[in-house]
Every structure is written in C-alpha cells, then in structure tokens.
C-alpha cells in the first residue's frame, strides 16, 4: 500500500535566545509578504526599522520563557509529533516549521528522499489566516515546484468549528474551569484589520458593522479569521454551559501602529479589573502549543498588568500541547484532510 506521510507544521522559533538568532528569525518571519503584506520596498524599510530594537526586546522575552531543551513552541511541537506517531499507521510522521528549523523544505526533502509520494500537510492553526495557513501551504507548493518533487499533498483545513478540536479544548481546560473563577478571557492572536479586508471575498463584508463577524457565513466565514475566532469561542463556551457574562473574546500581540482587530487583550485586562473581576482565567485557543505569546505575553506581562489594575489572580490555561484528547483529535482531523495538490 502507498504510504501517506503526515507533516505537522507550526510557526517556528529562533534557534536560540541570542540577539543575532532572534534578529534572523524576525527578519525571515516579518519579510514574509503574507505577514507584512506591503510592497517589498516598504516592507523592507519597515522591517529594517523594526529590527533596530525588537530583536533585543524579543531575545529578552524569549530568554525568560526558554526551556533547557529549547523554545517551548518547538519542544512542544516535537513532543506532539512524537505522541501522534504511534497513532498514524499510514506512514512516517514529521514536524516542520514555517520559519527557522526544521524548515518545510528540509522536511519535504527528507520525506521525498524516503520514497514518500503522498503527504498530509497539517498547518497547526485552528483559524484561517493568510499569515499562518496560506503562507505555510504556499511554502510547501514552492518547495515541491522548485525542487521538482513528486509529492501529492492533502491539506488539513482550518478546524475552528470541528467538534474534535472543541472537545479537546474542553477536556484540556476542564481542570482549570473546575476552580473558582470570575471570568474566562479567550485571547486569540490578533491580525491587522487590513488582512481581513484582503481576504474578504465580497470586498464589502468585514468590519463594516459591529456584528458582521458574528453573522458571517459561507465564503465570508471561510476567509474571516475574526469570525472563526468568535465561532470557536462561542462553541467552546456553549459546550461548557458558560453564561454570556462569564466569558469574552479578545485579540493579543499587536505589532506596529496599524489598527488590528479588536477588542485588544491589553485593554480587556484593564476593563475586567475595573469591573471587579478578581480571579481571571485566560485561554489562548489560536495557539495549539504554548509559546512566547502565551507564556510571556499573557502569563508574565498580562498577569503583571491585571494585578496592577486591581485583579488578584490571573491563571493562564495551558494550550492543547500534548493532551491525549488533542493527540486523538488531531489524528482524526488529519485523516479527513482533502486531497489538494
Ligand atoms: C505583522 C505581524 C504579525 C502577524 C500578522 C502575526 C500573525 C499571527 N501569528 C500567529 C502565531 C504566532 N506568532 C508568534 C510570534 C510572533 N508573532 C509576531 C508578529 C505577527 N504575527 C512576532 C513579531 C512574533 C515573535 C515574537 C515577538 O517578537 O513578539 C508565535 C510564537 C513563536 C514562538 O517562538 O514562540 C506564534 C505561535 C498567529 C496564529 C497569527 C495570525 C492569526
Ligand atoms: Fe504572531
Ligand atoms: Fe469578518
């Protein structure tokens, strides 16, 4: 029988916490036209400006959460790959990163070198965005084309509304939700509003009214990151039977001066404290593995901010990481991936 390899794909991290390694990672990441979607000369200028101060700040932040084995994102993604392997009887299971190592190019060449002809390509992003899903798939297509590889891809589609993902989120969060808490904040990674306008197939739906993302359906929903985040949040809260005042959604990690999708997590932390929330739970459902954005931005800086604003406790709920329910869910989702190339 023909072997079907599984390639799990995540974002990637710097090789180390050295400023030079962080600069080179940020340069590769931010020069991606799907991430900073501006014409090359403007992007080059903007990224060069960002690279004056950001690498040092980010290196410091990475150093504060780095593990002896490496970046949490990379280590957790590798552990997930190892946990999935015994369940994927169809062929080999490998990990690739969009930025840094192991690169998509290296991993596809390795699989092709083993005689593999079919790959299930699994971007580990529940909600669709050009800056995550599209860029990963396009990079795989580039490698296949430029290296002349005889590989067919089945691509895992965004799974923001799939019961397997939502049930795994519930299973992983249950022990934390069993504790006493005043509010649950679902903090998703943010995006510049410009990205939503670009992927809106009607050119006239997104961010036009207060609730347009709540009402998105069909092709609009399939391309609207914000709408998918809101749906994941609502479906998760419904599964847990949470009342509307017990939970809310926000968007974190804004970079630069452009307007990003709202509400901003930073603003929500102050608002919730001002409303008298003392015990806050924060989950980050756009990330399947803990990383700098969850551990440092929320777990360290977010906690500090919430406590300074009058809150008493911020509990960060771990990402899905290697939870058994997630391992099973991922295998099921990957088996359903449609043939795309
Ligand atoms: C224009 C900038 C950025 C966009 C757009 C963006 C989208 C986006 N990112 C993730 C997931 C992750 N991002 C991570 C780190 C990170 N993201 C940006 C910028 C944008 N992201 C930067 C500059 C960084 C590096 C860290 C820093 O300097 O702040 C990570 C963690 C990587 C790690 O090593 O831990 C993840 C994961 C999503 C899901 C997304 C769009 C929806
Ligand atoms: Fe990011
Ligand atoms: Fe929208």
UniProtKB/TrEMBL annotation:
Subcellular location: Cytoplasm
Catalytic activity: Fe-coproporphyrin III + 2 H(+) = coproporphyrin III + Fe(2+); heme b + 2 H(+) = protoporphyrin IX + Fe(2+)
Domain of life: Bacteria
Entry EC no(s): 4.98.1.1
Entry binding sites for Fe(2+): 189, 293
Pathway, per record: Porphyrin-containing compound metabolism; protoheme biosynthesis; protoheme from protoporphyrin-IX: step 1/1
Single GO term (MF): lyase activity
Keywords carried by this UniProt record: Cytoplasm, Heme biosynthesis, Iron, Lyase, Metal-binding, Porphyrin biosynthesis
Function, as annotated: Catalyzes the ferrous insertion into protoporphyrin IX.
Record family assignment: Belongs to the ferrochelatase family.
Name listed for the protein in its UniProt record: Ferrochelatase
UniProt source species: Stutzerimonas nitrititolerans
């Amino acid at each position: 029988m023909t072997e079907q390899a599984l390639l799990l794909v995540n974002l990637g991290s710097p090789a180390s916490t050295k400023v030079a390694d962080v600069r080179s990672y940020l340069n590769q990441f931010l020069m991606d036209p799907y991430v900073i979607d501006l014409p090359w000369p403007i992007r080059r200028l903007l990224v060069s400006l960002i690279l004056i101060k950001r690498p040092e700040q980010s290196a410091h932040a990475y150093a504060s959460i780095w593990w002896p084995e490496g970046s949490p994102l990379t280590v957790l993604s590798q552990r997930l790959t190892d946990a999935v392997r015994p369940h994927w009887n169809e062929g080999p299971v490998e990990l690739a990163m969009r930025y840094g190592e192991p690169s998509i190019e290296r991993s596809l060449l390795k699989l092709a070198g083993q005689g593999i002809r079919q790959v299930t390509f699994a971007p580990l992003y529940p909600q669709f965005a050009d800056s995550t899903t599209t860029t990963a798939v396009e990079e795989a297509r580039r490698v296949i084309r430029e290296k002349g590889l005889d590989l067919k891809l089945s691509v895992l589609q965004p799974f923001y509304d799939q019961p397997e993902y939502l049930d795994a989120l519930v299973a992983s969060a249950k022990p934390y939700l069993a504790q006493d808490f005043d509010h649950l904040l679902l903090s998703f990674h943010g995006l510049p509003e410009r990205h939503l306008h670009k992927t809106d197939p009607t050119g006239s739906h997104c961010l036009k009214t207060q609730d347009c993302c709540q009402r998105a359906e069909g092709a609009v929903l399939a391309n609207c990151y914000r709408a998918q985040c809101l749906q994941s949040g609502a479906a998760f809260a419904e599964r847990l039977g949470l009342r509307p005042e017990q939970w809310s959604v926000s968007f974190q990690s804004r970079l630069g001066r452009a307007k990003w999708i709202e509400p901003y997590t930073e603003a929500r932390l102050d608002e919730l404290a001002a409303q008298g929330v003392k015990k806050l739970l924060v989950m980050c459902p756009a990330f399947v593995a803990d990383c700098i954005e969850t551990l440092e931005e929320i777990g360290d800086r977010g906690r500090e901010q919430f406590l300074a604003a009058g809150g008493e406790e911020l509990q960060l709920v771990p990402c899905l990481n290697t939870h058994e329910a997630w391992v099973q869910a991922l295998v099921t989702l990957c088996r359903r991936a449609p043939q795309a190339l």
